[in-house]
Amino acid sequence: MTINGVDVGPLVDAELNRRYPDRAKMRPADPAGFGKAWDILGRLWGDTVERARRLPPGLLHEQVDGEWSFIETLRHLVFATDSWIRRVILGDPSPWDPLDLPWDEMPDTPGVPRDRGARPSLDAVLELRRDRMSTVRRVIEGLTGASLDSHTEPVEGPGWPRPRSYPVRECLLCILNEEWEHRLYAERDLNALEARS
Q1: To the nearest 10°, the Cα dihedral for 143, 33, 136, 38?
Q2: CB pairs under 8 A, 24+ apart, for 91-99?
Q3: What is the pLDDT of residues 11-60, one digit of tens each?
Q4: CB count, 10 Å around CB of 143?
Q5: How many angstroms separate the CA atoms of 156 and 170, rounded?
Q6: What's the DSSP call for residue 104?
């Protein structure tokens, strides 16, 4: 967006980085930077989950202003990891768990679950999250400069993302972005849920 000939995008970006000092670290340039970013996300999500645990379990299934519930948010992050890490980077053609939750506008895709009615416990979803976060950790720990700059092999068969080659760096940046943004949404919604309780 341009105002009086000035692109305000960089100004907004700088302000968000000022408000959230760790945000700029979510665009790492090298394997060590990806490791640091993943450590930050693990710490931040740990705090967010502890905050959620203090709420009555039923509230974690409640939506705030039509957005995903806390549990649905965690399920979506499992889906993102299964798609971009387990399918695209690791080559598993069908990596999804029945609790995976794609974004709402995604067309129905053979083999990809979309059970919006599921109401798993927080512990059940966190078990999946721990497994998937460990998978991301292993991928990041195995990175070299060359592998970070490489492209994936297309994974054939139905599913998402579509079968083509993707830059490894972009797949990992996608996961960092999903984890960062959805935690902010979760924190915002926990404010409202705490007020309800």
Answers
A1: 160
A2: 91/152, 91/153, 91/155, 92/155, 93/155, 93/156, 93/157, 93/159, 94/157, 94/159, 96/159, 97/128, 99/75, 99/124, 99/125, 99/128
A3: 556 666 566 688 899 999 999 999 999 999 999 999 999 999 999 999 99
A4: 20
A5: 20
A6: T
For the CA atoms of 102, 108, 111, 114, what is the dihedral angle to 10 degrees?
40
Amino acid at 101: L
Exposed (0-12), middle (13-18) or buried (19+): which is 187, by Cβ within 10 Å? middle
Whether the CB-CB separation of 172 and 88 falls below 8 Å is answered with no
CA distances from 130 to 90, 134, 160 (A): 18, 6, 22
Residue 64 near residue 189, CB atoms below 8 Å: yes
Strand partners, 7: 2
pTM above 0.85, yes or no: yes
Least confident of 30-34, 93-97, 162-166, 193-197: 193-197
What's the whole-number mean pLDDT along residues 62-79? 96
pLDDT at residue 123, rounded to an integer: 97
- Identify the bridge partners of residue 151 per DSSP, sorted by sequence position: 167
